[in-house]
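User: I'm curious whether this sequence folds into something compact or stays loose and floppy. Could you predict its structure so I can see for myself?
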Amino acid sequence: MENSRSPFDVALTQFDRAATYVEQPDHILEALRVCRRELIVNFPVRMDDRSEKIMTGYRIQHSTARGPSKGGIRYHPGVTLDEMRAMAMWMTWKCAVANLPYGGAKGGVTCDPRTLSVDELENLTRRYATEIAIIMGPEDDIPAPDVGTDARTMAWIMDTYSNQCGRFTPAVVTGKPLELGGSVGRAEATGRGIAWVTAEALKHRNMPLEGATVAVQGFGKVGAPSAYLLEDLGCKVVAISDVTGGYYNPKGLDVRDLLCYARQNNNLLAGYPSAECITNDELLAMDVDILALCALEGAVTECNAPSIRAKLVVEGANGPVTPEADDILTDKGIFLVPDVLANIGGVVVSYFEWIQGRQFHFWTECEVNEQLHAIMVRSFEQVLNMAQEKKVDMRVAAYILAIDRVARAQALRGPCV
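Assistant: Here's the prediction. I'll summarize afterward.
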Protein backbone atom coordinates (compact mmCIF):
# COMPACT_ATOMS: atom_id res chain seq x y z
CA MET A 1 0.00 0.00 0.00
CA GLU A 2 1.47 3.38 -1.03
CA ASN A 3 1.41 6.51 1.08
CA SER A 4 -1.59 8.56 -0.07
CA ARG A 5 -0.91 11.66 2.04
CA SER A 6 0.12 14.76 0.16
CA PRO A 7 3.45 16.40 1.05
CA PHE A 8 1.79 19.60 2.26
CA ASP A 9 -0.61 17.63 4.46
CA VAL A 10 2.43 15.94 6.00
CA ALA A 11 4.11 19.33 6.50
CA LEU A 12 1.02 20.73 8.23
CA THR A 13 0.72 17.71 10.51
CA GLN A 14 4.35 18.12 11.54
CA PHE A 15 3.76 21.82 12.15
CA ASP A 16 0.63 21.23 14.25
CA ARG A 17 2.35 18.64 16.44
CA ALA A 18 5.00 21.18 17.43
CA ALA A 19 2.92 24.37 17.45
CA THR A 20 1.10 23.30 20.63
CA TYR A 21 4.40 23.76 22.49
CA VAL A 22 5.04 27.25 21.09
CA GLU A 23 3.81 30.13 23.24
CA GLN A 24 2.86 32.55 20.50
CA PRO A 25 -0.54 34.10 19.56
CA ASP A 26 -2.86 31.87 17.58
CA HIS A 27 -3.16 34.33 14.69
CA ILE A 28 0.60 34.28 14.15
CA LEU A 29 0.77 30.49 14.22
CA GLU A 30 -2.18 30.33 11.84
CA ALA A 31 -0.37 32.65 9.42
CA LEU A 32 2.57 30.23 9.36
CA ARG A 33 0.31 27.38 8.21
CA VAL A 34 -0.04 28.99 4.78
CA CYS A 35 2.43 30.16 2.16
CA ARG A 36 2.74 33.90 1.76
CA ARG A 37 3.07 33.99 -2.03
CA GLU A 38 2.39 31.39 -4.74
CA LEU A 39 3.32 31.97 -8.37
CA ILE A 40 2.22 29.56 -11.11
CA VAL A 41 3.57 30.14 -14.61
CA ASN A 42 2.71 28.47 -17.92
CA PHE A 43 5.23 29.24 -20.63
CA PRO A 44 6.31 28.00 -24.08
CA VAL A 45 9.67 26.32 -24.60
CA ARG A 46 11.26 26.04 -28.04
CA MET A 47 12.24 22.41 -28.68
CA ASP A 48 15.01 21.13 -30.94
CA ASP A 49 12.52 20.26 -33.70
CA ARG A 50 11.38 23.93 -33.67
CA SER A 51 8.06 23.08 -32.06
CA GLU A 52 6.94 24.75 -28.84
CA LYS A 53 5.88 22.91 -25.72
CA ILE A 54 3.94 24.54 -22.89
CA MET A 55 5.56 23.95 -19.50
CA THR A 56 4.15 24.65 -16.04
CA GLY A 57 6.39 26.04 -13.32
CA TYR A 58 6.03 27.24 -9.75
CA ARG A 59 7.77 29.52 -7.27
CA ILE A 60 6.38 29.44 -3.74
CA GLN A 61 7.47 31.70 -0.87
CA HIS A 62 6.37 30.44 2.53
CA SER A 63 7.78 33.15 4.81
CA THR A 64 9.87 36.31 4.62
CA ALA A 65 9.60 37.22 8.31
CA ARG A 66 13.29 36.60 9.02
CA GLY A 67 14.71 37.72 5.67
CA PRO A 68 14.54 37.00 1.92
CA SER A 69 13.14 33.64 0.94
CA LYS A 70 15.56 30.88 -0.03
CA GLY A 71 15.04 27.52 -1.69
CA GLY A 72 15.86 25.18 -4.52
CA ILE A 73 14.46 24.74 -8.01
CA ARG A 74 13.40 21.22 -8.99
CA TYR A 75 12.93 19.78 -12.50
CA HIS A 76 10.97 16.54 -12.13
CA PRO A 77 7.83 14.95 -13.61
CA GLY A 78 6.27 14.82 -10.12
CA VAL A 79 6.53 18.55 -9.40
CA THR A 80 3.17 19.87 -8.16
CA LEU A 81 1.90 22.96 -6.37
CA ASP A 82 1.23 20.88 -3.25
CA GLU A 83 4.80 19.55 -3.20
CA MET A 84 6.24 23.04 -3.69
CA ARG A 85 4.20 24.36 -0.76
CA ALA A 86 5.52 21.63 1.51
CA MET A 87 9.12 22.15 0.40
CA ALA A 88 8.86 25.91 0.92
CA MET A 89 7.52 25.42 4.45
CA TRP A 90 10.23 22.88 5.28
CA MET A 91 12.82 25.36 4.00
CA THR A 92 11.56 28.00 6.42
CA TRP A 93 12.11 25.63 9.33
CA LYS A 94 15.56 24.61 8.07
CA CYS A 95 16.73 28.20 7.86
CA ALA A 96 15.33 28.91 11.32
CA VAL A 97 16.95 25.80 12.87
CA ALA A 98 20.29 26.95 11.45
CA ASN A 99 19.46 30.52 12.58
CA LEU A 100 20.01 31.95 9.11
CA PRO A 101 18.38 35.28 8.11
CA TYR A 102 16.13 33.64 5.52
CA GLY A 103 12.60 32.43 5.01
CA GLY A 104 11.68 29.41 2.94
CA ALA A 105 10.87 29.12 -0.76
CA LYS A 106 10.73 26.41 -3.40
CA GLY A 107 10.35 26.31 -7.13
CA GLY A 108 10.10 23.81 -9.91
CA VAL A 109 9.01 22.88 -13.38
CA THR A 110 6.96 19.79 -14.16
CA CYS A 111 9.19 18.04 -16.68
CA ASP A 112 11.62 15.17 -17.11
CA PRO A 113 15.04 16.78 -17.63
CA ARG A 114 16.53 13.44 -18.73
CA THR A 115 14.46 13.62 -21.94
CA LEU A 116 15.57 17.17 -22.81
CA SER A 117 18.66 18.22 -24.74
CA VAL A 118 21.06 20.82 -23.34
CA ASP A 119 19.58 23.46 -25.66
CA GLU A 120 16.05 22.58 -24.55
CA LEU A 121 17.06 22.73 -20.89
CA GLU A 122 18.64 26.14 -21.42
CA ASN A 123 15.56 27.43 -23.26
CA LEU A 124 13.32 26.13 -20.47
CA THR A 125 15.50 27.58 -17.70
CA ARG A 126 15.89 31.03 -19.20
CA ARG A 127 12.15 31.35 -19.89
CA TYR A 128 11.27 30.06 -16.42
CA ALA A 129 13.75 32.52 -14.87
CA THR A 130 12.15 35.36 -16.82
CA GLU A 131 8.69 34.32 -15.61
CA ILE A 132 9.64 34.21 -11.90
CA ALA A 133 11.91 37.28 -12.02
CA ILE A 134 9.01 39.40 -10.73
CA ILE A 135 9.50 37.88 -7.26
CA MET A 136 13.19 36.88 -7.49
CA GLY A 137 16.22 38.91 -6.44
CA PRO A 138 19.29 38.89 -4.16
CA GLU A 139 17.32 40.67 -1.43
CA ASP A 140 13.96 39.07 -2.23
CA ASP A 141 14.15 35.39 -3.21
CA ILE A 142 17.31 33.40 -3.93
CA PRO A 143 17.02 30.06 -5.81
CA ALA A 144 19.47 27.15 -5.63
CA PRO A 145 19.84 23.71 -7.29
CA ASP A 146 17.64 20.77 -6.34
CA VAL A 147 16.55 17.51 -7.97
CA GLY A 148 17.09 17.72 -11.74
CA THR A 149 19.03 21.00 -11.64
CA ASP A 150 22.69 21.84 -11.08
CA ALA A 151 25.34 24.57 -11.17
CA ARG A 152 24.86 25.04 -14.93
CA THR A 153 21.15 25.66 -14.36
CA MET A 154 21.99 28.32 -11.78
CA ALA A 155 24.44 29.94 -14.23
CA TRP A 156 21.65 30.29 -16.80
CA ILE A 157 19.29 31.79 -14.22
CA MET A 158 21.92 34.21 -12.93
CA ASP A 159 22.82 35.28 -16.46
CA THR A 160 19.17 35.79 -17.43
CA TYR A 161 18.50 37.89 -14.33
CA SER A 162 21.74 39.86 -14.73
CA ASN A 163 20.90 40.71 -18.34
CA GLN A 164 17.47 41.95 -17.27
CA CYS A 165 19.02 44.10 -14.53
CA GLY A 166 21.86 45.34 -16.72
CA ARG A 167 24.55 44.35 -14.22
CA PHE A 168 26.34 41.23 -12.99
CA THR A 169 24.30 39.94 -10.03
CA PRO A 170 25.91 36.76 -8.65
CA ALA A 171 23.99 36.81 -5.36
CA VAL A 172 20.63 36.21 -7.08
CA VAL A 173 21.23 32.43 -6.97
CA THR A 174 23.51 30.05 -5.08
CA GLY A 175 25.01 26.75 -6.14
CA LYS A 176 26.67 28.44 -9.13
CA PRO A 177 29.89 27.34 -10.85
CA LEU A 178 33.02 28.59 -9.09
CA GLU A 179 33.89 30.65 -12.17
CA LEU A 180 30.72 32.72 -11.68
CA GLY A 181 30.96 33.33 -7.94
CA GLY A 182 30.04 29.94 -6.54
CA SER A 183 31.43 28.83 -3.20
CA VAL A 184 34.00 26.11 -2.67
CA GLY A 185 32.49 23.32 -0.60
CA ARG A 186 28.93 23.90 -1.88
CA ALA A 187 28.65 20.67 -3.89
CA GLU A 188 29.37 18.47 -0.85
CA ALA A 189 27.77 20.73 1.76
CA THR A 190 24.53 18.82 2.31
CA GLY A 191 26.32 15.47 2.50
CA ARG A 192 29.03 16.90 4.75
CA GLY A 193 26.42 18.30 7.11
CA ILE A 194 24.63 14.94 7.18
CA ALA A 195 27.89 13.16 8.01
CA TRP A 196 28.71 15.56 10.83
CA VAL A 197 25.23 15.53 12.36
CA THR A 198 25.23 11.72 12.16
CA ALA A 199 28.50 11.71 14.11
CA GLU A 200 26.90 13.92 16.76
CA ALA A 201 23.87 11.63 16.98
CA LEU A 202 26.08 8.56 17.41
CA LYS A 203 27.99 10.34 20.16
CA HIS A 204 24.72 11.18 21.92
CA ARG A 205 23.59 7.54 21.69
CA ASN A 206 26.98 6.27 22.92
CA MET A 207 27.53 4.41 19.66
CA PRO A 208 31.01 4.18 18.08
CA LEU A 209 31.58 6.02 14.82
CA GLU A 210 34.37 3.72 13.69
CA GLY A 211 32.89 0.67 12.01
CA ALA A 212 29.26 1.82 12.28
CA THR A 213 27.29 0.13 9.50
CA VAL A 214 25.36 2.33 7.08
CA ALA A 215 22.65 1.83 4.45
CA VAL A 216 21.99 4.79 2.16
CA GLN A 217 18.81 5.17 0.14
CA GLY A 218 19.62 7.37 -2.84
CA PHE A 219 22.89 7.98 -4.67
CA GLY A 220 22.43 11.44 -6.10
CA LYS A 221 23.73 14.86 -5.11
CA VAL A 222 22.93 14.17 -1.43
CA GLY A 223 23.26 10.41 -1.05
CA ALA A 224 26.63 9.97 -2.77
CA PRO A 225 28.55 12.62 -0.77
CA SER A 226 26.82 11.52 2.44
CA ALA A 227 27.99 7.95 1.80
CA TYR A 228 31.64 8.63 1.03
CA LEU A 229 31.97 11.29 3.74
CA LEU A 230 30.55 8.87 6.32
CA GLU A 231 33.03 6.33 4.96
CA ASP A 232 35.80 8.90 5.47
CA LEU A 233 34.74 9.25 9.12
CA GLY A 234 35.24 5.51 9.63
CA CYS A 235 31.76 4.12 8.97
CA LYS A 236 31.21 1.00 6.86
CA VAL A 237 28.70 1.57 4.07
CA VAL A 238 27.17 -1.83 3.33
CA ALA A 239 24.22 -0.89 1.10
CA ILE A 240 23.31 1.85 -1.36
CA SER A 241 20.41 2.27 -3.78
CA ASP A 242 19.53 4.37 -6.80
CA VAL A 243 16.67 4.28 -9.31
CA THR A 244 17.93 0.92 -10.63
CA GLY A 245 17.72 -0.86 -7.27
CA GLY A 246 19.81 -1.63 -4.20
CA TYR A 247 23.40 -2.87 -3.96
CA TYR A 248 24.73 -4.71 -0.90
CA ASN A 249 28.08 -5.98 0.32
CA PRO A 250 28.32 -7.06 3.97
CA LYS A 251 32.10 -6.45 3.91
CA GLY A 252 31.51 -2.84 2.92
CA LEU A 253 31.22 -1.02 -0.38
CA ASP A 254 33.92 1.22 -1.81
CA VAL A 255 31.73 4.29 -2.23
CA ARG A 256 34.13 6.24 -4.42
CA ASP A 257 34.47 3.22 -6.67
CA LEU A 258 30.68 3.15 -6.92
CA LEU A 259 30.72 6.83 -7.80
CA CYS A 260 33.34 6.28 -10.50
CA TYR A 261 31.31 3.38 -11.91
CA ALA A 262 28.13 5.47 -11.98
CA ARG A 263 29.86 8.33 -13.81
CA GLN A 264 30.93 5.91 -16.51
CA ASN A 265 27.43 4.40 -16.78
CA ASN A 266 25.04 7.33 -17.28
CA ASN A 267 25.04 8.06 -13.51
CA LEU A 268 23.46 4.69 -12.76
CA LEU A 269 24.65 1.76 -10.62
CA ALA A 270 23.01 -0.99 -12.70
CA GLY A 271 25.41 -3.86 -13.24
CA TYR A 272 27.89 -2.87 -10.52
CA PRO A 273 29.96 -6.05 -10.12
CA SER A 274 31.15 -5.84 -6.51
CA ALA A 275 27.76 -6.03 -4.81
CA GLU A 276 24.66 -8.18 -4.46
CA CYS A 277 21.44 -6.77 -5.90
CA ILE A 278 18.68 -6.16 -3.35
CA THR A 279 15.32 -4.39 -3.43
CA ASN A 280 14.60 -0.99 -1.97
CA ASP A 281 12.42 -2.63 0.71
CA GLU A 282 15.29 -4.92 1.67
CA LEU A 283 17.63 -1.95 2.00
CA LEU A 284 15.21 -0.08 4.26
CA ALA A 285 14.81 -3.14 6.48
CA MET A 286 18.52 -3.89 6.87
CA ASP A 287 19.90 -4.48 10.37
CA VAL A 288 22.39 -1.59 10.35
CA ASP A 289 23.45 1.12 12.76
CA ILE A 290 22.52 3.99 10.44
CA LEU A 291 19.86 4.32 7.75
CA ALA A 292 20.34 7.48 5.68
CA LEU A 293 17.25 8.41 3.65
CA CYS A 294 18.60 10.50 0.77
CA ALA A 295 16.04 9.91 -2.01
CA LEU A 296 12.60 11.57 -2.26
CA GLU A 297 9.79 12.29 0.19
CA GLY A 298 7.44 9.62 1.51
CA ALA A 299 9.98 6.77 1.52
CA VAL A 300 9.00 5.48 4.97
CA THR A 301 5.29 5.20 5.78
CA GLU A 302 3.15 3.34 8.29
CA CYS A 303 3.30 0.41 5.86
CA ASN A 304 7.05 -0.20 5.92
CA ALA A 305 8.10 1.56 9.16
CA PRO A 306 7.53 -1.62 11.25
CA SER A 307 10.28 -3.33 9.22
CA ILE A 308 12.92 -0.65 9.92
CA ARG A 309 15.69 -2.12 12.09
CA ALA A 310 18.33 0.61 11.99
CA LYS A 311 19.27 2.13 15.35
CA LEU A 312 19.58 5.61 13.88
CA VAL A 313 17.61 7.11 10.96
CA VAL A 314 18.94 10.28 9.32
CA GLU A 315 16.76 12.21 6.86
CA GLY A 316 18.98 13.43 4.05
CA ALA A 317 15.98 14.00 1.77
CA ASN A 318 13.05 16.31 2.44
CA GLY A 319 10.08 14.62 4.09
CA PRO A 320 11.10 10.97 3.69
CA VAL A 321 9.25 9.83 6.85
CA THR A 322 5.51 10.42 7.29
CA PRO A 323 4.03 11.42 10.66
CA GLU A 324 2.46 7.97 11.11
CA ALA A 325 5.84 6.37 10.45
CA ASP A 326 7.42 8.80 12.90
CA ASP A 327 5.22 7.40 15.67
CA ILE A 328 6.16 3.83 14.80
CA LEU A 329 9.89 4.57 14.75
CA THR A 330 9.64 6.39 18.09
CA ASP A 331 7.80 3.44 19.65
CA LYS A 332 10.55 1.15 18.37
CA GLY A 333 13.17 3.29 20.12
CA ILE A 334 14.82 4.41 16.88
CA PHE A 335 16.56 7.79 17.13
CA LEU A 336 15.65 9.97 14.14
CA VAL A 337 17.50 13.09 12.99
CA PRO A 338 14.87 15.07 11.03
CA ASP A 339 15.39 16.66 7.64
CA VAL A 340 15.06 20.22 8.95
CA LEU A 341 18.22 19.55 10.97
CA ALA A 342 20.07 16.81 9.09
CA ASN A 343 20.20 18.34 5.62
CA ILE A 344 20.68 22.03 6.42
CA GLY A 345 24.31 21.91 5.21
CA GLY A 346 23.30 22.92 1.70
CA VAL A 347 21.43 26.06 2.70
CA VAL A 348 24.12 26.97 5.24
CA VAL A 349 26.83 27.01 2.56
CA SER A 350 24.38 28.68 0.17
CA TYR A 351 24.17 31.43 2.79
CA PHE A 352 27.96 31.63 2.80
CA GLU A 353 27.92 31.86 -1.02
CA TRP A 354 25.30 34.61 -0.89
CA ILE A 355 27.45 36.60 1.54
CA GLN A 356 30.52 36.13 -0.66
CA GLY A 357 28.57 37.17 -3.76
CA ARG A 358 27.30 40.34 -2.14
CA GLN A 359 30.75 41.30 -0.85
CA PHE A 360 32.80 39.98 -3.81
CA HIS A 361 35.11 38.44 -1.22
CA PHE A 362 35.62 34.68 -1.30
CA TRP A 363 36.53 32.19 1.43
CA THR A 364 38.80 29.18 1.37
CA GLU A 365 37.31 25.69 1.54
CA CYS A 366 38.81 25.30 5.02
CA GLU A 367 36.98 28.44 6.18
CA VAL A 368 33.70 27.26 4.64
CA ASN A 369 33.90 23.80 6.24
CA GLU A 370 34.95 25.20 9.61
CA GLN A 371 31.95 27.52 9.71
CA LEU A 372 29.63 24.76 8.48
CA HIS A 373 30.83 22.35 11.16
CA ALA A 374 30.24 24.93 13.88
CA ILE A 375 26.65 25.56 12.73
CA MET A 376 25.84 21.84 12.36
CA VAL A 377 27.10 21.03 15.87
CA ARG A 378 25.40 24.06 17.41
CA SER A 379 22.10 23.31 15.69
CA PHE A 380 22.17 19.64 16.78
CA GLU A 381 22.88 20.62 20.38
CA GLN A 382 20.08 23.20 20.42
CA VAL A 383 17.54 20.74 19.00
CA LEU A 384 18.68 17.99 21.39
CA ASN A 385 18.40 20.36 24.35
CA MET A 386 14.87 21.28 23.27
CA ALA A 387 13.95 17.59 22.93
CA GLN A 388 15.19 16.88 26.43
CA GLU A 389 13.55 19.97 27.90
CA LYS A 390 10.11 19.33 26.34
CA LYS A 391 10.42 15.52 26.44
CA VAL A 392 9.63 15.21 22.73
CA ASP A 393 11.33 13.55 19.76
CA MET A 394 13.93 15.36 17.66
CA ARG A 395 11.53 16.36 14.88
CA VAL A 396 9.06 18.01 17.22
CA ALA A 397 11.96 19.67 19.03
CA ALA A 398 13.40 21.06 15.79
CA TYR A 399 9.99 22.40 14.80
CA ILE A 400 9.44 24.01 18.21
CA LEU A 401 12.77 25.81 17.90
CA ALA A 402 12.12 26.88 14.30
CA ILE A 403 8.47 27.91 14.69
CA ASP A 404 9.25 29.97 17.78
CA ARG A 405 12.04 31.84 15.99
CA VAL A 406 9.89 32.61 12.95
CA ALA A 407 6.83 33.49 15.03
CA ARG A 408 8.85 35.91 17.16
CA ALA A 409 10.12 37.66 14.04
CA GLN A 410 6.60 37.77 12.62
CA ALA A 411 5.22 39.25 15.85
CA LEU A 412 7.95 41.89 16.05
CA ARG A 413 7.45 43.01 12.46
CA GLY A 414 3.66 43.15 12.57
CA PRO A 415 0.74 41.72 10.61
CA CYS A 416 1.79 42.97 7.16
CA VAL A 417 4.77 40.60 6.81
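Summary: The first helix runs from residue 7 to 19. The chain has 14 helices and twelve strands.
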